[in-house]
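Researcher: Next entry in the queue.
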Amino acid sequence: MLPIAWSGPVERADAARNRQKILRAAAKLVATRGVESLALDEVAAAAGVGVGTVYRRYPDRGALAQALLDEQEREFQQAFISGPPPLGPGAPAEERIRAFLHAFVDRLETQGKLLMVAETETPMARFATGAYRLHHSHLVGLISEAEPEIDAHFRADALLAPLAAAQYVYQRENGMSVEQIKAGFDQLLS
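Model: Structure for this entry, 190 residues:
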């Protein structure tokens, strides 16, 4: 799935074709009818595959949502691991932390509802992904560099908590602007 955070076994050609059909059908359903329409049986019908084929690969909506987000997650990881500063290397740690949080907010603005499905299908889904572990590890490194005397693991969790997709969607649906949310992160960092 995620080449930076995880790499899996080689996929059979027929399984790869089915995966692509499933993902195309799921993306089309989400684009035309919204995230709420992401039902595995409807995806199977739209993809022209059996429901069992979908369930074997994606046991729930959250796993399918994660797969739909895979390419965007790869791009995000690439940006903060090796992209230009301040998100990527070359800027002071404090600037990189701020850039990471702001970039995450931008991502939530475009993908928040789909991320919400991916993060909330099971109680600990958000924390079980390689993506979350990589985000956390990245922040721990930057925080340790910026403020070596504090508990970087706790601070990373504290900064990632308000980036939960459900929290973000709730804030946006209740009138908070993207700028207010980014300003709130800036206040947390000061």
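Model: Residues 63 and 117 are 9 Å apart (CA to CA).
Researcher: Noted, moving on.
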